[in-house]
C-alpha cells in the first residue's frame, strides 16, 4: 500500500495536529488510569518530571557544520557519515548522549527522519531509506535497534492518523483532553506501554496539563478562589514536589492574563467600574514592577480614549446618515470631515479599518444569502 508524501509529513506533529485539525476520539481509560482512579494519563507517580518536559520541548541540538560522527558508545558509529551534512545538521552525538531510546530526543529524531525522507514513494521505500541512513550513521547493533523502533513508531502513527479521520471536531478543552487520552491509549496498545510512554510521555503530559488547566480556567461557573484551589490540586496531583516550579514557569504577562481569566466571574459581578479597576490594579501589583504598571495604565487610557472616540463618531454618523436634507455625496463629505475632526492624525487608519469592516459585512451577507438560497 502506498504512503503519500503528505501522510508521511503530517505524522511529524500528530498530537499538535489535534489542536490544528481538531479531530477527537471518545475517552477510554487505560488499565493504569482505572487502577489509579484519578483519570490522569500521567500524574506525579509516573516519574515524568518538569525537567523531562522542558528537555523534550527543546529543539534538537545542531552542529555548526561538518559531520555528525562519534567515537563510539551510545551514539553514532565512529567514522560514520562520511558525506557532508548541511550547515545546520543535527548533532547526533548530543541527541543520543543518554541512550538510543530516551524520553527527551528519540521521538523528535524520528520526526526528523520523517521529514528527511518525506519524498518516499510508499511506506516500504520510506523505511528502506531510513534503514540505509541509520546503518550509515550508527554501529550495526545501534542502527538495528533504532530501525526496529522507528518501524513500530511510524506504523503506529500511520494507523493513528487513519483512525482520526472518522471522528468529529474538537470544540472544547475537554474534547482535546479526551482525544489525548485515547491517543496515548492507542499508542500503548500498539507499541506496548513502556515504549509508548518513553517516546511520547513527556510531550503528552505537558499537553494533558495544559488542557486540564484550560478546563479549570475557562469554567464560567466558578469564582476565582474556586479555580485557584482546583489549580493547586492539579499541580500537586500531576507534578508533586515540582508544583510550585510549574506554576511559576510562565512569564509575568501570561500569568497576569490568566489571572484575569480566572477571576472573570468575580470581576463581572463587582458593583462599579471603579471597584473593577481597583481589583485589576491589585492583580497587576502581584506580577509587575511599578514602571510596568505605569505602562499598562497608559495603554488603558489610550484604549479608553479610542473607545470614546468611536462611540462619539458612531452617534454623529447615525445622525448624518438619517438626515433627509443631505444627498449621499454630502453625507460622505460630512462623515469624512467628522473623521478628521474626531480621529485627527489617525483618521486615515480609521477609514482603512472602516473599508475592511464594510467589505467583510458584505461578504458575510452574500454568504448568508447563498446559504438561504441553497436550502
Give your account of this protein's structure.
- By secondary structure, the protein is mostly helical.
- Helices cover 68% and strands 0% of the residues.
- It is built from 18 helices and no strands.
- Helix 7 packs antiparallel against helix 8 and helix 9 runs antiparallel to helix 10.
- The N terminus is likely disordered.
Quick summary:
By secondary structure, the protein is mainly alpha-helical.
> Could you tell me the number of beta strands?
0
Structural class: mainly alpha
The biggest beta sheet, please?
none
> What's the SSE pattern?
HHHHHHHHHHHHHHHHHH
Percent in helix: 55-70%
User: How much β-strand is present in the residues?
Assistant: under 5%
> What general form does the structure show?
extended
Low-confidence stretches: 1-37, 66-85
Number of helices: 18
Distance between the termini: 41 Å
Q: Based on the structure, what is the oligomeric state of the protein chains?
A: single chain
What is Rg?
Answer: 28 Å
Mean pLDDT: 82
What is the secondary structure topology, with strand pairs?
Blueprint: H1 5-10, H2 14-21, H3 31-36, H4 50-56, H5 92-95, H6 106-116, H7 123-137, H8 140-164, H9 173-191, H10 193-217, H11 224-239, H12 243-248, H13 252-262, H14 264-268, H15 273-287, H16 290-321, H17 328-343, H18 347-374
Amino acid at each position: 500500500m502506498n504512503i503519500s508524501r503528505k501522510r508521511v509529513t503530517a505524522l511529524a506533529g500528530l498530537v499538535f495536529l489535534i489542536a490544528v485539525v481538531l479531530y477527537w476520539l471518545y475517552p477510554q481509560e487505560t488499565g493504569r488510569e482505572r487502577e489509579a482512579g484519578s483519570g490522569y494519563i500521567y500524574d506525579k507517580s509516573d516519574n515524568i518530571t518538569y525537567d523531562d518536559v522542558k528537555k523534550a520541548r527543546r529543539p534538537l541540538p545542531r552542529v555548526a557544520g561538518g559531520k555528525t560522527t562519534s567515537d563510539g558508545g551510545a551514539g553514532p558509529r565512529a567514522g560514520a557519515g562520511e558525506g557532508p551534512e548541511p550547515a545546520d545538521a543535527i548533532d547526533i552525538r548530543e541527541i543520543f548522549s543518554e541512550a538510543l531510546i530516551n524520553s527527551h530526543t528519540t521521538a523528535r529524531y524520528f520526526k526528523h527522519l520523517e521529514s528527511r525522507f518525506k519524498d518516499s514513494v510508499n511506506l516500504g521505500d520510506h523505511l528502506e531509506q531510513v534503514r540505509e541512513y541509520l546503518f550509515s550513521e550508527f554501529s550495526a547493533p545501534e542502527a538495528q535497534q533504532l530501525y526496529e523502533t522507528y518501524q513500530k513508531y511510524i506504523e503506529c502513527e500511520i494507523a493513528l492518523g487513519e483512525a482520526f479521520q472518522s471522528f468529529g471536531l474538537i470544540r472544547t478543552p475537554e474534547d482535546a483532553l479526551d482525544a489525548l487520552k485515547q491517543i496515548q491509549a492507542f499508542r500503548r496498545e500498539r507499541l506496548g506501554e513502556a515504549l509508548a510512554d518513553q517516546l511520547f510521555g513527556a510531550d503528552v503530559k505537558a499537553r494533558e496539563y495544559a488542557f486540564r488547566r484550560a478546563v479549570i480556567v475557562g469554567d464560567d461557573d466558578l469564582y476565582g478562589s474556586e479555580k485557584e484551589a482546583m489549580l493547586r490540586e492539579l499541580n500537586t496531583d500531576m507534578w508533586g514536589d515540582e508544583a510550585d516550579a510549574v506554576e511559576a514557569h510562565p512569564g509575568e504577562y501570561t500569568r497576569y492574563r490568566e489571572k484575569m481569566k480566572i477571576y472573570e466571574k468575580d470581576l463581572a459581578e463587582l458593583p462599579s467600574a471603579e471597584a473593577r479597576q481597583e481589583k485589576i490594579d491589585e492583580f497587576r501589583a502581584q506580577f509587575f514592577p511599578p514602571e510596568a504598571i505605569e505602562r499598562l495604565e497608559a495603554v488603558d487610557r489610550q484604549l479608553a480614549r479610542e473607545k470614546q472616540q468611536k462611540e462619539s463618531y458612531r452617534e454623529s454618523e447615525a445622525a448624518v446618515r438619517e438626515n433627509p436634507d443631505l444627498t449621499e455625496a454630502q453625507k460622505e463629505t460630512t462623515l469624512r470631515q467628522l473623521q478628521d475632526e474626531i480621529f485627527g492624525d489617525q483618521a486615515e487608519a480609521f477609514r482603512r479599518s472602516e473599508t475592511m469592516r464594510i467589505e467583510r459585512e458584505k461578504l458575510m451577507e452574500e454568504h448568508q444569502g447563498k446559504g438561504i438560497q441553497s436550502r
